[in-house]
Write a structure and sequence with these properties.
Blueprint (H helix, E strand, L loop, with lengths): L1 E2 L7 E4 L5 E4 L17 E2 L7 E5 L1 H4 L10 H11 L5 H15 L10 E7 L6 E3 L1
Antiparallel strand pairs: 1-4, 2-3, 2-5, 5-6, 6-7
């Protein structure tokens, strides 16, 4: 998989063996500088891998004690529900965020989940 991350939160790649790979930024944010160059990174996907792309509305959702949901809770939720189909995994995580932060939502909660299926020679992403 080839990707560019222009200053956003790192995508999370949960491998089939439960190791976690953070797909960090490959350059600074788009549109702030007159001169801008972005590198492209590559990552090999394997059958059983789960990819999570998300906005800060997921990790910065606050509870009544003013604690953030945070990346660690997101990772734990990914691991806990990893056996679910992508659509169900997405719903389970959004449900956890909303239970954690039941008050008024102040930011978008955007989450994309994809699972790699098939043989390692020709993996497919299922969203």
């Amino acid at each position: 998989m080839r990707y560019a991350n222009c200053g956003h939160l790192a995508a999370l790649l949960l491998r089939g063996d439960d190791t976690l790979v953070r797909l960090d930024s490959t350059c600074t944010v788009l549109g702030l500088f007159h001169e801008w160059n972005c590198s492209i990174a590559e990552c090999r996907l394997h059958s059983g891998d789960t990819l999570a792309l998300y906005t800060d509305g997921v990790t910065e959702a606050f509870n009544s004690a003013e604690e953030e949901f945070g990346e660690q809770r997101l990772i734990e939720a990914l691991r806990r529900h990893r056996a679910l189909a992508p659509r169900d995994l997405l719903a389970a995580i959004v449900n956890e965020v909303q239970r954690f932060s039941p008050g008024e939502q102040y930011d978008d909660i955007t989450l994309i989940i994809a699972k790699c299926i098939g043989q390692d020679q020709q993996p497919l992403l299922r969203f």
